[in-house]
Amino acid sequence: MILDEKYKEIRDMVKKFSDSEVAPLAMKIDHEGHIPKELIAKLSENGFMGSYVPEEYGGAGMDYMSYSLIVEEISRNCASTGVLISAHTSLGIWPILNFGTEAQKQKYLPKMASGEWIGCFCLSEPNAGSDAGSLTTFAEDKGDHWEMNATKNWITNHEEAGVCIVFAKTKKTPDYKGISAFIVETTTPGFSIIKIEDKLGIKGSSTAQLAFDKVKVPKDALLGDLEKGFRVAMATLDGGRIGIASQALGIAQGAFDYAIRYTKQRVQFGAPLSDLQGVQFMLADMSTKIGASRLLIYHASALKDAGENYSKESAQAKLFASESAMWITTKAIQLCGGNGYTKEYPVERYFRDAKITEIYEGTSEVQRMVIAANELKAIH
To answer: What DSSP line would sit under 210-247, residue for residue?
Structure first.
């Protein structure tokens, strides 16, 4: 797929920003475990935090293809910063943009597009991960408000978040049919952080277990139709998976670029490693997986922008790109030898960051279920 000139310009602009502003901070972000507020401000100033928010709501007015390019190029240098953008945009902004009332859009989108308010997505629970429909969070109708009690797990952007998209049952059912979606501000009394996760990778991305203890949620905070929240969640995740696929692609590209430079400079047996056919074969396979991942992501993004069904294609993109990123980062360490195993070199960070892309926003196994279900449905 050949990118139009406008996309090439966007990609080049983000690449320049990523190399000059993100790359110098990537190791520090990983070591210190947070993303500097100054960097988030620069991301916002360049329109990256509200890329596909319409201009009427203060956004950059781009499309999903542009957003995918942004996440890829930022993640090429720092996956933690890439997922900050991805979770905020595709999981925080998108459901409000697509299911929110006009009043909700006017209230939240300008502040989220500017980066003043960062979004997070609260679906998973201690006993409801891949089986999201089994969540037990309940929001009780108190007449003039909802009273919410919940424990939510693995919440990305908790440290920065001002707005949460929270899923809770408003009708006690044994399945997903009683789930509703709500917009909850983190300054609401009863909201608290239970535990901050110490993770293998994306260590600069904040992740926590959150509590909602008798939180009073206004009636006008209902997002979408009552008891139709599961549809909101699944539709949101379809798009979110393109973002995670783009993150995985960026990680893979970053590791590959470093491996190329290293093998050209590292001399063994009297010649650069890159002269060895065995090394060239590894590099060729890495390059091919990156190219295939990129095509799957661009295809899913193009379908989404065209208003076509893209559920299967987004799952394919995430499945292939994430598993490719894990394979490519493993090979990058192998090519760098003992040096690649140390924190002095960035490939071990790419390796640690890649693993989560096979897990969050739907594991690889869940992606295979989605793909198979779509294929089986298509054949009568």
So the answer is: EEEEEEEEEGGGEESSTT-HHHHHHHHHHHHHHHHHHH
Alpha-carbon distance of 351 to 92, in angstroms, equals: 27
Is 197 annotated as catalytic?
Answer: no
Q: What is the pLDDT of residues 189-219, one digit of tens each?
A: 999 999 999 999 999 999 999 999 999 999 9
* Beta carbons within 8 Å of 341's beta carbon, 6+ residues apart: 333, 348
The third-level CATH classification (topology) of the domain covering 119-230 is Butyryl-CoA Dehydrogenase, subunit A; domain 2 (2.40.110)
Question: Tell me: the pLDDT tens digits for 222-278?
Answer: 999 999 999 999 999 999 999 999 999 999 999 999 999 999 999 999 999 999 999
Q: 237-378 has which CATH code?
A: 1.20.140.10
Active-site hit among 125, 313, 323, 361: 361
Task: Write the single-letter amino acid at 249.
Answer: L
What dihedral angle (degrees, nearest 10) is formed by the CA atoms of 206, 209, 214, 215? 20
Relative orientation angle of helices 64-75 and 5-17, to the nearest 10 degrees: 30
Helices 347-355 and 79-86: angle between axes, nearest 10 degrees: 30
- pTM attached to this predicted model: 0.97
Residue 378's pLDDT band, with cuts at 50, 70 and 90, is confident
Domain boundaries, the chain: 5-118, 119-230, 237-378
At 131, the pLDDT band (50, 70, 90 cuts) reads confident
Superfamily of domain 5-118: Acyl-CoA dehydrogenase/oxidase, N-terminal domain (1.10.540.10)
* CA 58 – CA 113 distance, rounded (Å): 6
Nearest CA-CA partner of 248 in 330, 340, 324, 349: 324
